[in-house]
Specification:
The chain is mainly alpha-helical. It has one domain: Hemerythrin-like (Four Helix Bundle (Hemerythrin (Met), subunit A)), CATH 1.20.120.50. 75% of the residues lie in helices and 0% in strands. The chain has four helices and no strands. Helix 1 runs antiparallel to helix 2, helix 2 runs antiparallel to helix 3 and helix 3 packs antiparallel against helix 4. The longest helix has 31 residues.
Amino acid sequence: MKPYRTPVLDASAIPQVALASMNATHREELDLVNQLGVLLEQGMEGAVDVPAITAKVGEWVEHTRDHFARENRLMQAHGFPPYPMHSGEHERILRELEGLQRQWLDTNAVEPLAKFLFLDWPGWFNQHINSMDRVTAQFLSRFLVE
């Protein structure tokens, strides 16, 4: 079995939280990741589409940056007590993604990006949603009407 195969995660595997807007954002991110996964899978087989991968990585980083900024604003606006811990995790993963983006732009090496996307990111994504996002959404649902 190949370690890198798409989809990276099936949409039915995304944990749901108490806010529809957060669930929609998670779904959008998964869609981007799965699209990038297809490109990286093809790249691992020798068909590296540098412009397409570059564009998709950029889209993923921007989506993640916007996603985290939106959550951070909501947590701050409503006085979410564990804000520093949750926003710190956002900062950590965003720095990691930006580092992978820089590495890709410098080297066009598929392997480091594929390793993160297929092996590291799915576990982090599920864990983050099941822990930090679940608690955050439950807290924010008291203030937000969707």
